[in-house]
Amino acid sequence: MPGHKQHGPIRVALLGCGTVGTEVVRLLTEQADDLTARVGAPIELAGIAVRKPNKHREVPADLLTTDAEALVASDVDVVIEVIGGIEPTRTLLRKALEGGKSVVTANKALLAEHSAELFEAADASGADLYFEAAVAGAIPLLRPLRESLAGDRITRVMGIVNGTTNFILSGMTSTGSSYAETLEEATRLGYAEADPTADVDGYDAASKAAILASLAFHSRVTASDVHREGIASVSAADIAAAKGLGRVVKLLAICERVEVDGTESIAVRVHPAMIPVAHPLASVNGAFNAVFVEADAAGEMMFYGQGAGGAPTASAVLGDLVAAARNRVGGGHGPRESAYAALPVRPMGQTPTRYHISLDVADRPGVLSQVAAVFAEHDVSIAAVRQEGRVDDAGLVVVTHAATDAALRSTVDKISGLPVVREVVSVMRVEGEET
Amino acid sequence: MPGHKQHGPIRVALLGCGTVGTEVVRLLTEQADDLTARVGAPIELAGIAVRKPNKHREVPADLLTTDAEALVASDVDVVIEVIGGIEPTRTLLRKALEGGKSVVTANKALLAEHSAELFEAADASGADLYFEAAVAGAIPLLRPLRESLAGDRITRVMGIVNGTTNFILSGMTSTGSSYAETLEEATRLGYAEADPTADVDGYDAASKAAILASLAFHSRVTASDVHREGIASVSAADIAAAKGLGRVVKLLAICERVEVDGTESIAVRVHPAMIPVAHPLASVNGAFNAVFVEADAAGEMMFYGQGAGGAPTASAVLGDLVAAARNRVGGGHGPRESAYAALPVRPMGQTPTRYHISLDVADRPGVLSQVAAVFAEHDVSIAAVRQEGRVDDAGLVVVTHAATDAALRSTVDKISGLPVVREVVSVMRVEGEET
Question: Where along this sequence does the record place binding of L-homoserine (chains A, B) (predicted)?
Answer without folding.
Answer: 193
